[in-house]
Amino acid sequence: MGQVKSIMIVGVGGQGSLLASKLMGNVLMAQGFDVKVSEVHGMAQRGGSVVTYVKYGEKVYSPVIEMGEADVIVSFEKLEAARWLPYLKQGGKLIVNDQEISPMPVITGAMAYPEGILEKLREKQVDVVALDALSLAHQAGSAKAVNVVLIGVLSSMLDFPDEVWQETIEKTVPAKFLELNRRAFALGRGH
Q: C or N terminus of the chain, fewer CB within 10 Å?
């Protein structure tokens, strides 16, 4: 338990990154860790960048993740993955939803969406786990379940029992969305 681990969840407003970080925080607390969760860039309106830090260990003193410190970055979108890459530690993992959500400058035509983002990340020797989380979310029953698909992928890299994840999903999501989120989680975990 000793060493503090850091996970960054990065996305675009309206993608459900807050639920993702809440699930993560609840799972980690259930495992007995000291956990600090903080939303850093609170541009929650759609299209704005939203970043959440999740730090856990025996004792966590600061919720802030410095550059080069994140063990894992979970990115809901490719451009966000590239934007926050400097925060990933050497040998860290980058989970990326292979989806393009155009930021305002692209929407207004001031810039083009960059090409070949995943290829460029891999050229930098980054350990990239890319998946089409949106189609898995559709398969689970709703485009809104991308967040839980990505948490499912992350769960497969962390050594916590499946039942802890299941119990946490049950406690964290509204009952009417429980089955949907269970399916989304399973699809991500099995990816």
A: N
Q: Which contacts (CB < 8 Å, 24+ apart) does range 30-37 have?
A: 30/164, 30/167, 30/168, 31/160, 31/164, 32/1, 33/1, 33/57, 33/58, 34/58, 34/59, 34/60, 35/60, 36/60, 36/62, 36/63, 37/63
Distance CA 93, CA 74 (A): 8
Residue 102 is which amino acid? S
The reported pLDDT for the residue numbered 47 is 62
pLDDT, tens digit, for every residue of 3-28?
999 999 998 877 888 899 999 999 99
DSSP states of 82-96: HHHGGGEEEEEEEEE
Residue 118: which residues within 8 A CB-CB, separation 6 or more?
78, 96, 98, 128, 130
This model's pTM is above 0.90? yes
Question: Domains in the chain, please, with CATH?
Answer: 5-189 (3.40.920.10)
Residue burial 155-180, b: 16+ Cβ < 10 Å; e: rest: beebeeeeebbeebbeebbeeebeeb
Residue 52 has which token pair? 């959440």
